[in-house]
Amino acid sequence: MTSSERNFARRIDLTSLQLFVAVCELGTIGRAAEREFIAASAISKRLSDLEATLGTPLLYRHARGVDLTPAGESLLHHARSVLYSLEKMQGELSEYADGIRGHVRVHANISAIVQFLPEDLGAFTREHDAIKIDLEEHLSSEVVRAVHEGAADLGICHVPEGTSELQSLPYRRDSLVLVVPAGHPLAAQRAIDFADSLDVDHVGLHTNSSIYVAMHQAALAADRTIKLRIHVTGLDAMCRMIENGLGIGVMPLRAFELMQGGIGRGLTSVALNDAWAAREIRLVARDFSTLPVAARMLVTHLQAPAAAPDQLAA
């Protein structure tokens, strides 16, 4: 760190950063003052001092509240990253004091959680019972954002385009299939093109999910639209809707096979010929080399299946 960088770090007050983020999140200095239990005039003074330190306006102040200047938007991104890092440091150090030798925050999409993570994380925790893993389910785009902003150490998802600022490693592969009632006309097919299913009502996942995005793009390429009858938030709900005649749906094959012993007993799967139906789930981090030791151990464990002969998980 250069002398000028050290001087800059000394001039930045963490409390002022916290108050700046609070004002940005709530939209007014008054609401931020109520939440943070501090006088509005004190927040206003700290924000003015922060602007003076940085040499640029951070907020547009008006009668209804505040809006961010371009410099303010940049500072908000960095301030959140700094505060997330501090929370992470506090959490890890407190858990060392409690006898836990590591803490890894993982965000993953539903495909990874349903198909692979129960077994993989179960095996890891049996070998490393002093390491705590916090796992949250999110859409792939939200997983990437959480890793980018520092809210998660590790992401596990289908990596959207335009995430080159993050590092990624292979984890597992999966294949998408069309799920239909056992007596449905399409059930007799061994494999079809997705476009051939567009005359039938569909049950779809959230519009921002990687599966729905792929379906939508495929329909556009065929100059067709999806007859979407209902949106659901989970694969189990999708199976129940399909089983009760509300349409057909697309889901990962392994996830469907895991459900067939229960809610998916009256359903069958049809392979999709489309190239986008063969997918890769990846591990995502800002920088794998700088992850805490516990997180690097988890990455090594999760990558073990990727070192096996390359084949679609089924």
Helix content percent band? 40-55%
Uncertain stretches of 5 or more adjacent residues:
309-314
Give me the secondary-structure category.
alpha/beta
Q: Average pLDDT across residues?
A: 87
| Number of discrete helical segments | 12
Shape: globular
Radius of gyration: 24 Å
Number of strands: 12
Strand content: 15-25%
- Rounded to the nearest angstrom, the distance between the terminal CA atoms is 50 Å
H-E string: HHHHEEHEHHEHEEEEHEHEHEEH
The main pleated sheet reads as: 8 strands, mixed
Give an account of the 3D structure:
The protein is an alpha/beta fold and 314 residues long. The strands form three sheets. Strands 3, 4, 5, 6, 7, 10, 11 and 12 form an eight-stranded mixed β-sheet that branches. The protein has a two-stranded antiparallel sheet with strand order 1-2. Helix 2 crosses helix 3 and helix 2 crosses helix 4.
How is the topology of this model organized?
Layout: H1 3-11, H2 14-26, H3 29-36, H4 40-54, E1 59-62, E2 65-68, H5 70-97, E3 102-108, H6 110-115, H7 117-127, E4 131-137, H8 140-149, E5 154-157, E6 167-181, E7 191-192, E8 202-204, H9 210-221, E9 228-231, H10 235-243, E10 249-252, H11 253-259, E11 267-272, E12 278-285, H12 293-303
Parallel strand pairs: 3-4, 3-5, 7-11, 8-9
Antiparallel strand pairs: 1-2, 5-12, 6-10, 6-11, 6-12
